[in-house]
Specification:
By secondary structure, the protein is mostly helical. It is built from 13 helices and two strands. The radius of gyration is 23 Å and the shape is globular.
Length: about 270
């Protein structure tokens, strides 16, 4: 009798798990099929002809895809550098100093994520046009950094807050200056969290489309812009391959970041 009662619950769990798996792996399977489909049209449910011709087009050294990939990586690296240059001192100050309105300052870094991005970037593009920053890598980096700071500052502040203050005080008591105590004690211990924040910022920049579209087009072309142009032009093979290329670093970095975001750091986020 107990087994019969448990059967509907088990069936429901299996159905929910299958639905979840379909939601995750269904789109990925569709991308994989389109990436190797040379011909696919209705009424056929699967590609008519398979091949790697479009992969060769994407990875052709003289093609737009490789140039866009290199541009995306370069912009992402610059965005990480700008974000960390601001996030490390800001995170340390928020974690160590008794700042007035600290909570308001933390919330301030969330503002770029709190409003519709299209409305924000239209106004940013207008201001950047007057400053001569539209269509430049520098302008795109500034837009990406504004979005990435929410990850960089919040995680950096949590990383510094997780470092035991007594270690700093011990170094100071042994004659170390505040700057030396920071670079020899505090920063190395907070480094795993800072690396994790850098990875989040890198991925955010690599996948950013809206800000690049309004500020960078047409002079700056990144991989998300190439994906958009290919999909709007009906070239689903190129769009699918581009999406898979963008997916690989996201998956690898997210697996890698688990090594750096410790429980004590996560418990300090937002505090």
């Amino acid at each position: 009798m107990t087994t019969l009662r448990a059967l509907p619950v088990a069936v429901l769990k299996v159905f929910a798990l299958a639905l979840f798996a379909f939601a995750i792996f269904g789109p990925l399977t569709n991308l994989a099929l389109w990436s190797v489909a040379e011909r696919w049209y209705t009424p056929f449910k699967l590609p008519v002809t398979y091949g790697l011709r479009y992969w060769e087009v994407v990875f052709r050294p003289t093609g737009d895809a490789m140039a866009s990939l290199m541009t995306s990586i370069w912009i992402a690296l610059l965005t990480v550098a700008v974000s960390l240059a601001l996030a490390i001192p800001a995170g340390y100050a928020l974690a160590r100093l008794k700042l007035p309105m600290r909570a308001a300052i933390m919330i301030l870094f969330l503002l770029p994520q709190a409003f519709p991005s299209v409305a924000i970037y239209i106004n940013v593009a207008r201001i950047f046009y007057q400053l001569g920053l539209t269509g430049t890598v520098g302008g795109v980096v500034l837009v990406h950094a504004a979005h990435g700071l929410v990850y960089a500052v919040w995680i950096a502040a949590a990383a510094f807050a997780a470092v035991d203050r007594d270690l700093e005080l011990a170094a100071r008591n042994m004659g170390a200056s505040p700057l030396r105590a920071f670079f020899t004690i505090t920063l190395p211990l907070a480094l795993p969290g800072i690396i994790a924040s850098a990875i989040f910022v890198f991925l955010e920049s690599l996948d950013e489309f809206t800000g690049t579209f309004f500020v960078g087009v047409p002079q700056v072309s990144t991989l998300p812009l190439l994906l958009y142009n290919a999909s709007m032009g009906g070239n689903y093979q190129i769009a699918s391959i581009t999406a898979l290329i963008l997916l690989v670093p996201s998956v690898l970095f997210m697996l890698f970041v688990e090594r750096f975001l410790r429980a004590d750091v996560l418990s300090k986020v937002g505090h």
